[in-house]
Fold VOC family protein.
Amino acid sequence: MEFHRPPHIYVGKVNIKVADLERSLTFYKDLIGFQILEQSGKRAILTANGRTPLLIIEQPDNVIPKQRRTTGLYHFALLLPNRSDLGAVLRHLLQNRYPIEGGSDHRVSEALYLSDPDGNGIEIYRDRPSTSWEWNNNEVVMTTEPLDAESLLNEGEDVKWEGLPNATLMGHIHLHVSQIANTEQFYQGGLGFDIVTRYGNQALFMSTGRYHHHIGLNTWNGIGAPTPVENSIGLGSFTLIFPDSMTRDKIIEQLQSIDAPVTKKASNYITKDPSGNTIELQVNE
C-alpha cells in the first residue's frame, strides 16, 4: 500500500450515480461493508475507516439506466490490506449468495469482480508484495489466471467479516474510453502517468512509482464510444491525489499545454479526459 501515499499520484475517491440511493446504501453497507460518513438529500459519502471518503453515491434527478457501449466506469477497485481479508470477503459474498462475476489471479494481485444493483463494476483485491512482481522492458508482467478460491477461503477462515478493514483504499480505477492514442497523450503527457502494461491498441495500464496500475483504460465498449448523458447511471467523477501543490501546478501546466480543459472548483481543479471522464485534482491533506 506504499503506492497510495506521497510522493505518488493515486486515486482517492470515486463518485458514481445510482438509480435508488437507499437501495444502493443497503448494498454498499451490508454487502460491501462501507460506513456512511455523510448523507444529505440524494447523496451519500462512504468510508472504510470513519474518516476518509472513498466512494460517493448519488441519485441524479430524472436518472436513467446505465447506457450500453459508452465511455465511463468499467470498475472501481477496493484494495484490502491482507489476503485473509479477501478470503473473508469471498466467504461473506458466498454466504449471502451474491453473484460473483469473476475471480482472477493477476500474478501481481488476486481479485474478485462483481457489480452493484445498477451495474456499476466493482473489483475487490489484494496485492502481492511488490518485490515479487516481474518486469520486462519496464512493463509489469500481469496475467489472468483462475483464482485459487479454496486457498483464499482457507486463508480467511479465522477472520470474521465485520465490514471493510480500516486500511482499505481505493486501489485503482478502470475506465472505458473512446480511443487509445489521445487517451495515452492525456494521461501520460498531461497527468504524468507512466505506461506499465499495454495490450495492443485496446488497453493501457498506467501508474506512478511503478505500481501495477492506478488507472486502467480500454476501448472494449468500441472505438469511438460516446460519452453517456449526464443523468445516466455510471461514473460521476474520480479524484486524483497529488503529493503537494507544486506537483499539481506542474500537472495543470502540462494539461493546458496539450489543450486539455482545466477549471477551478473551490480549492480544487477539474479536468476531463478526451472521453469525457471527469477528474478532480486534489492535493494530499
About this structure: The helical segments are 21-32, 83-95, 149-155, 181-190, 245-257.
